[in-house]
Design goal:
The structure holds two protein chains of two kinds.
Chain A (H helix, E strand, L loop, with lengths): L8 H34 L2 H22 L7 H17 L1 H11 L3 H28 L4 H51 L7 H33 L7 E6 L4 E7 L2 E6 L2 E5 L3 H13 L7 E6 L4 H6 L7 E5 L3 H9 L1 H6 L9 E4 L3 H5 L7 E7 L6 H4 L4 H9 L1 E10 L7 H14 L2 E9 L3 E9 L45 H12 L4
Parallel strand pairs in A: 5-6, 5-8, 6-7, 8-9
Antiparallel strand pairs in A: 1-2, 2-3, 3-4, 9-11, 10-11
Chain B lengths: L4 H6 L20 E3 L5 H5 L10 E12 L3 H12 L6 E4 L11 E4 L2 E4 L4 E3 L6 H9 L3 E4 L5 E3 L10 E5 L2 E4 L9 H19 L20 H4 L6 H7 L5 H15 L8 H9 L13 E3 L4 H10 L9 E9 L2 E8 L2 E12 L3 H7 L10 E11 L13 E4 L6 E4 L12 E8 L5 H10 L2 H13 L9 E14 L10 H6 L5 E3 L10 H18 L13
Parallel strand pairs in B: 1-19, 2-3, 2-14, 9-16, 14-20
Antiparallel strand pairs in B: 4-5, 6-11, 7-8, 9-10, 12-13, 13-14, 15-18, 15-19, 16-17, 17-18
Helix pairs in contact in B: 3-15, 7-9
The chains are: A alpha/beta, B alpha/beta.
Bound molecules: flavin-adenine dinucleotide.
Chain lengths: ~500, ~550
């Protein structure tokens, strides 16, 4: 409803200054939030920012044009638009993040939001100018509004990188400006005359919007923690949730990475170093590795290395998660990484918990065993590093069988690494620690183990990229700062390993 | 200014890792009621004998009634003695085990009631022998200390406590408490440590499991004449946190409040366990995915006898040569004549079945046990998993998870067994509430109680089984442990011996099995059939 009598001049200029400034700041912030989120989630910030600025500006133009169709109830419409901008803009970052995390179509949501917010923001200034038109000359008004608009933009562009993002993060920044926008809406209702019923309705709407946004702000901490785990350095190309873990694959410039529960499992750039080191020292110490057991390693990369050895007739690969083995069997870009190892007729994939599987009957004996579990960062994984587990393992190892294991980093988690060595030593007569440098992980630790010292040393298969016969033995030499005194044995009833691993990482100042 | 990606998106307030998957909400949870000996049929006892025809009289040398921990232990003891006579065995439930029975569900076995025992002290000869017989104790070192099979020891981490918004290790929130709380806890710990080692004038341990091997020193037994609450008051132990912790312990073992139990019983919980394993262990608990049901199953495998299930014993009367029992097998009334009988029934049943001059009058606590079958666990703050999860300030005692002890990965399908003794009202009132409660309401009650610590749990539940134990655990009230009281209650009649954890005034496997072994030995001696040394005789 238009005011019937002219309101006093002072509040109007107050309204003008504050509203125009806030509206302009908020508008630009929403645009920056969208641009920042898009470039950090999708990568390629130049493209993302240009596209979003383009879309946003054109939507604003559209909004300004559409303002001519609004004839009646200018103030009410203005307040309603403010409320809409407050809600959509305020929840922009949470909505975008949710879309990215939980839906396949991020781009449609992104551009849908940018266009909607742009159009609404485009409506704001023309309406404000028209509302104030009656109290001031057009010349004066346009000059002041446009001035404030640009000042607001300057404000926003300075605040955003210097204060808001570092202090609040994108999620809260977007919510804070939503709250400011809703406050402008509420405040506006006090400056103009309107029938009480209309005022009441507008105030209730504005108050509700404020409440919802405030609530959102309160829960932001919660959402952040949920989001935090979803953040990866490179664009995410695949994301699945199994009953056991979150499986994420990222890809950037020829580097494919697999994450389980947010923890890096390999980078395709240097995984050959890891998997060659994991597999070949053990396999070359077996005369004929006819039957090989792989525990973990659902990505098929260890299997790929095992298949390079002659005489392999059967590989049993036990990995908990059917989603991981399915992805690395069916997805073309992932199959390429393991050379189709999981579809090789010699490879038998078993989806089971290795701990439970080893309790089973009729497993037979294996000539070589490769253990490739995630680090023992919780008790469920720690069970797979206990003396009891290794004892169960010895039951399926042929007398001459040789095993190898990834055993965390002797540099970053030395106590954990040497605890694994002590635990292996409790059940196996022969344990030889070794290590290799894997750029994606840093200095990494492994061990060879067997019931007795192996007598065999076969030449390595041809075509390896990291190891050769001349240098492989250097992996078994430990520089002084990687050595440690004896550590306790990790037992089911007392999982010291998980605590040591945790303490080691704490000492490094978290990760 | 250079910001990491994480800081860019989340700001400087970015917190630790978490996992935020929200599964799709599901329809209503299918709920079943599981009680091995359906309360309804047990209550038929109250209504006297039904008028059905007797289908013939069976004659046996030895009859065992009840296949709970006491009955199974009695059968095991009889078998171990190489008894040659004929044995019959009757059990009301649809499975053996009584309050230590187990169920089986989508994630394997799970307990319906009892779920662990503590490592037996040297005095618990019978428990050590049983555990050795079933392979859980694998041998003894030179000093006679047992070596345990690793898979029966509770896996690490044993317990966690939800306190201040996150799961912390252990059951006592030390770090969060005031200096006074900690000082009082230290005072209490020092007291119990002293009493754990204390001996009476008769040179027996002050507190022992089995209770029958505890000192009878009147100075110590005076503790049975006051409540635990008044004892703590007198010691100046008022710290609310300490009292909450001790209340948890009292409800956990006895299903009762600090004001309901005697000081002797309250201290017994903390002072009777002196495990001395051959190697230092990270736990004092033996447990199995199916709880004590697994132990019951292992013992059953070591006896040639199988209980006849679904048989309700109604009466037991003396005859010229032994005893005559009437029982209901379905609708058929059967009669059995036995030369000797082992009555392995809870006292509230025994008092109706056998007439005796001075029956034991003791209260028992009702328990609400709800098994939640889940397809996975929701994200949680802090310590991710443990065998026993306790929520500070909740109504219930928390839950144990069956997959912990299988070594299966922590987040797949599992069964959570949630325990709550109804201790805030009188046992009779609570029993009435419990037996009238709709199973669906019990499930909702438990889910509400867990909701603060396990947001999103409801969406992971795929089924539930409710076990309303009307007479769950004996309440060791004031006077029950005064010298002689329980010994009188356990005194055999000619050819008839009693066995039940109730006869110890404390519901523990070790006590039930003690009385099972003792009753078997008494009866076998009466029949002239015991040659090996006694496991459960007087100290
Ligand atoms: C919820 C709960 C949790 C517990 N947790 C533990 C624990 O963790 N550790 C522990 O040591 N103890 C625990 N207890 C106590 C433990 O279960 C008992 O101490 C012990 O198992 C009792 O064995 P019992 O044979 O004396 O009695 P019961 O288990 O009661 O066995 C009596 C048997 O007699 C049968 N019966 C009853 N009436 C008749 C009749 N008229 N005719 C034929 N048969 C009949 C019943 O069906 C039952 O099988 C728990 C108890 C409950 C209720």
């Amino acid at each position: 409803m238009l005011p019937s009598t002219a309101p006093p001049a002072a509040p109007v200029s107050g309204l003008l200054v504050v509203s125009a400034l806030l509206i302009a700041t908020c508008g630009l912030i929403y645009e920056l939030v969208a641009g920042a989120l898009a470039s950090y989630l999708l990568g390629d910030s130049i493209t993302q920012f240009s596209l979003i600025i383009g879309a946003y500006l054109s939507a604003m133009g559209l909004g300004s044009y559409l303002s001519k169709f609004i004839d009646r109830g200018l103030v009410s419409r203005f307040v309603e638009i403010e409320i809409a901008v407050a809600l959509i803009g305020g929840f922009e970052a949470p909505m975008l993040f949710a879309a990215f995390t939980y839906t396949p179509g991020f781009a449609p949501v992104l551009y849908g939001l940018v266009l909607t917010i742009g159009a609404l923001v485009g409506l704001e200034l023309p309406l404000l100018i028209r509302i104030l038109e009656r109290q001031s000359s057009l010349k004066e008004l346009v000059a002041r509004v446009m001035f404030l608009d640009y000042i607001g933009a300057l404000f926003a562009s300075l605040l955003f990188p210097l204060l808001l993002v570092p202090r609040l993060g994108l999620l809260r920044t977007s919510l804070v400006f939503g709250i400011l926008n809703a406050a402008v809406a509420l405040w506006t209702t006090f400056l103009f005359e309107a029938p009480p019923a209309v005022k009441l309705r507008l105030r209730l709407m504005a108050a509700a919007a404020l409440a919802v946004l405030g609530l959102g702000f309160g829960f932001a901490g919660h959402a952040e923690r949920a989001m935090d785990a979803q953040l990866f350095a490179d664009p995410v190309v695949l994301r699945e949730v199994s009953p056991y873990q979150r499986v994420t694959v990222t890809h950037r410039a020829g580097d494919t990475r697999l994450f389980l529960d947010g923890a890096l499992q390999f980078s395709s750039v240097d995984e050959h170093r890891y998997h060659e080191s994991l597999v070949h020292p053990a396999l070359r110490a077996v005369q004929t590795p006819t039957r090989v057991l792989i525990l973990g390693g659902g990505d098929g990369l260890a299997a790929r290395e095992v298949l390079k050895h002659e005489g392999v007739e059967e590989i049993v690969l036990v990995d908990l998660d059917p989603i991981v083995t399915r992805l690395f069997t069916e997805r073309e870009e992932l199959r390429l990484l393991n050379d189709g190892a999981l579809t090789d007729p010699r490879v038998k994939v078993v989806n089971d918990d290795a701990f439970r599987w080893l309790q089973g009957e009729g497993l037979g004996r294996f000539d070589a065993v490769i253990i490739d579990f995630p680090d023992p960062n919780d008790y469920a994984l720690g069970k797979l590093y206990t003396n009891h587990f290794y004892r169960m393992l010895t039951r399926v190892m042929a007398p001459h069988a040789v095993g190898s294991i990834q055993a965390t980093s002797p540099l970053f988690s030395p106590d954990a690494y040497w605890c694994i060595m002590a635990t292996l030593g409790a059940e196996l007569a022969y344990v030889r620690p070794y290590h290799a440098y894997i750029p994606a992980f840093g200095e990494w630790g492994f061990a060879l183990f067997s019931k007795a010292e192996p007598e065999v040393r076969r030449p390595l298969p041809l075509g390896l990229r990291f190891l050769d016969d001349a240098t492989i033995d250097t992996l078994f030499q430990f520089p002084v700062d990687l050595r440690r005194g004896p550590q306790p044995v990790n037992r089911l009833d007392d999982q010291v390993l998980v605590r040591l691993y945790d303490e080691d990482w704490q000492k490094l100042g978290g990760h | 200014m250079r910001l990491s990606r994480r800081e860019l998106l989340l700001g400087a307030s970015a917190l630790g890792l978490g996992c935020g998957e929200t599964p799709a909400p599901k329809g209503p949870i299918p709920v079943a009621e599981t009680l091995p000996g359906l309360a309804a049929s047990a209550h038929r006892l109250r209504n006297g004998k039904p008028q059905t025809r007797v289908s013939g009289v069976e004659r046996v040398d030895l009859l065992i009634v009840g296949a709970g921990a006491a009955g199974v232990s009695a059968a095991w003891r009889v078998a171990r003695a190489g008894f040659r006579g004929s044995v019959s065995w009757l059990e009301l439930g649809d499975r053996p085990g009584g309050t230590a029975a187990m169920g089986s569900g989508p994630s394997g076995e799970f307990p319906l009631g009892a779920h662990y025992i503590t490592l037996p002290s040297p005095e618990a000869t019978h428990v050590r022998t049983m555990l050795q017989d079933v392979g859980i104790i694998q041998g003894f070192d030179a000093e006679g200390r047992p070596r345990y099979r690793e898979t029966d020891l509770c896996f690490d981490p044993e317990e966690r406590l939800f306190y201040g918004g996150r799961w912390e290790p252990g059951l006592w929130p030390e770090a969060a408490l005031s200096g006074e709380d900690r000082a009082q806890k230290a005072h209490f710990d020092a007291l119990t440590q002293r009493l754990t080692q204390a001996r009476g004038a008769d040179d027996r341990p002050a507190f022992s499991i089995p209770i029958a091997r505890s000192s009878q020193d009147p100075a110590l037994r005076a503790l049975a004449e006051q409540t635990f609450a008044s004892f703590l008051d007198a010691e100046g132990l008022h710290s609310p946190a300490l009292r909450a912790y001790l209340r948890y312990a009292a409800r956990d073992d006895f299903g009762a409040e600090l004001e309901q139990i005697s000081a002797w019983a309250g201290l017994h919980y903390h002072c009777a366990r002196r495990p001395d394993p051959a190697t230092p262990l990270g736990t004092t608990v033996l447990t199995w995915p199916g709880g004590n049901g697994a132990l019951i199953g292992a013992l059953l495998k070591r006896t040639p006898y199988t209980p006849r299930l679904g048989v309700l014993v109604l009466s037991c009367e003396p005859e010229a040569e032994g005893w005559r029992l009437a029982a209901l097998d379905g609708d058929a009334l059967i009669e059995i004549q036995a030369k000797a009988v082992i009555m392995a029934l809870p006292v509230f049943v025994v008092n109706r079945v056998v007439k005796r001059p001075a029956p034991l009058r003791a209260e028992s606590a009702p328990w609400r046990v709800v098994n939640l079958h889940v397809d996975g666990l929701p994200a949680q703050e802090g310590v991710k998993a443990a065998w026993d999860s306790v929520i500070w300030g909740a109504k219930g005692l928390g839950y144990v998870i069956n997959t912990h002890q299988t070594g299966a990965f922590g987040r797949g399908p599992a069964t959570l067994t949630c325990y709550e003794p109804l201790s805030t009202e009188s046992p009779d009132t609570s029993r009435a509430i419990l037996l009238q409660e709709r199973p669906q309401d019990a499930v909702n009650h438990v889910l509400d109680d867990l909701s603060a610590a396990m947001p999103g749990l409801r969406d992971r539940v795929i089924g539930a089984e409710v076990c309303p134990w009307g007479h769950g655990t004996a309440i060791p009230a004031v006077g029950l442990h005064r010298v002689g009281a329980l010994e009188d209650a356990a005194r055999a009649l000619p050819g008839l011996s009693f066995a039940s954890a109730d006869l110890s005034g404390m519901s523990l496997f070790e006590e039930a099995s003690f009385h099972g072994c003792r009753a078997a030995e008494e009866v076998l001696m009466g029949l002239g059939a015991l040659t090996d040394p006694r496991l459960a005789g007087p100290a």
